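Q: Could you write out the predicted structure for this multi-component system? I'm mainly interested in how the pieces pack against one another.
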Amino acid sequence: MIHNFNAGPSILPKTLFEQASEAVLNYTNSGLSILEIGHRTPTFQAVMDEAKVLLKELMKLDNDHEVLFLHGGASTQFMQVPMNLLSDKETAAYSDTGVWSAKAIKEAKLFGNVEIVCSSKESNYTLIPKDFAVPNDAKYFHITTNNTIYGTQWQKIPHTSNSLVADMSSDILSRVLDFNKFDLIYAGAQKNIGAAGVNIVVINKNCLGKVKRNIPTILDYRNQIKEGSMLNTPPVFAIYVCMLTLRWLKEQGGVDAIEKINNEKATTLYSEIDANPLFKGTVAVEDRSKMNVCFVMDNVEIEERFLQYVKENDIYGIKGHRSVGGFRASLYNALPLESVNYLVELMNDFAQKNA
Amino acid sequence: MIHNFNAGPSILPKTLFEQASEAVLNYTNSGLSILEIGHRTPTFQAVMDEAKVLLKELMKLDNDHEVLFLHGGASTQFMQVPMNLLSDKETAAYSDTGVWSAKAIKEAKLFGNVEIVCSSKESNYTLIPKDFAVPNDAKYFHITTNNTIYGTQWQKIPHTSNSLVADMSSDILSRVLDFNKFDLIYAGAQKNIGAAGVNIVVINKNCLGKVKRNIPTILDYRNQIKEGSMLNTPPVFAIYVCMLTLRWLKEQGGVDAIEKINNEKATTLYSEIDANPLFKGTVAVEDRSKMNVCFVMDNVEIEERFLQYVKENDIYGIKGHRSVGGFRASLYNALPLESVNYLVELMNDFAQKNA
């Protein structure tokens, strides 16, 4: 068995692969592959409907919040969010907590004024900024709730009177939050929601229709809301995989239940990092991400040997991002506690052999 | 066996389903599903590279033409094309040959002037316009090479000195064309190239960088060219399915070989429509599509019975688009001649029983 710690696309529930594999051959005994069925059929409409209902239920969304399954990935949202929410002369507030935040900021500047209200760039993004104020007149305040590359996470969602917008690509559905407090949430599916190729947008519909610019049809959220995410042919299979993942999460007991396991996984691994003399964490302890655990060694040569050692022992995807180095273990929802325990064992063994 | 005549998402080669199904369980014996591997791994890079090389080879593209695999579907291209190619005060020429052309025209108007140089709207889009002129100063001339809903197809690509842009969603790779004559070709994959969830763009790179506006990063083709279609996480599985489809097409002998079979399929079905007293074609004979064959009956009640009859006999996806009515048999590359022969038999049987 391979233990998949990849940062994304990443591990999905094992039972899902069997179902998805069968669906590619013969979807619900129709004699057709899910890859060749029409998207405007009752067969696929049922998949889309179930995925939406599950997401609304798991996130406990109120009726103002609409759920969309869109093409384009979170990077498309970097520009689509300000295009829909920010008028030319208005100001949006952004927090700068990593490469992905910075990319979101760059795109927002094409549509209005951007005020960066806090940044951890000078600390190499190893912490979440604490003391800052968001101007009352900022149209919205954008945060990246979890920073995949650096392994930091907003442990508390900042209190602000502003409209909140969040890129939750790498921690959506991993912990209990009051999702209704956000006016817009977006997330690429390929971490906690499914496979690559679809993007989730949760949006308070009351925010829409307030900017004056001409928005291309496909980029206007209102059109996708009206068409039930089927303004054009949706990524059928990717949405099906989301639906299976959401079903699995519900079976696990939902977000409350998975949060407990996620906490246990993170505690287990961080405890080992703190106890083991060979390893050390890279970010401020209070801002440590429960999804992406980044750690290094003092000696780059030993790092190489450790990487080799875990690879030989069926660990996949643990090399750190090139901008941070060292290691990154991603502990998304579908990663079982057993995989973390196994990794900790290897870290222990390696330390003993290299004492 | 189900005979899949659906207009899209549509039939794919049978052998592909087995390979794709296995890849979802265990990709190339890696112990990992293709749904959980990183996109920046040699494993996936090999898929992307092979898909690109195959497409360039099958389309006989020169070195000026780049191949992109993008998110968003052809509907995204309706706005992305003029955003990248048309400056505010310039004019683009469009042909209006159906709903999809009309949607492309609507988006182009957001970015510059649009001159509709020909339209078959008054004929309910049942023909391809013949006599028209494209102004020399038009920045480009846009055509929809095949009109999926109405079943018309440009049999000859119009001669023009202008830069040519084409939506080839429903007939790409179905017939030999000089693809290098086009400066930009786009096509949703879900007909002749693969499953829903990825979009192909072939672009002459010399056209780019000439408009003055600020283009969002994700929508600037130059960025995707530079990043090899991986500016953000690509739709991994959808690209893998493209690669398998392109491999299959090459094994069939490429575009030349598939065109011969496509011609035979179309001739077989149109001959039956013309010979069978119950059926009649809906479009001008010389503009008949070889991909989407539209036909009706005089009597709507008998249409319902025929639809029921073929459904009971394992025919899928043959109901006509709601705006045309009757029937539409889509004969994409992966549909075998046997399925067409079988449909013709049923049409014959039905006519005898209902003489």
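A: Regarding packing and overall arrangement: Chain B touches chain A through 62 residues (CB under 8 Å).
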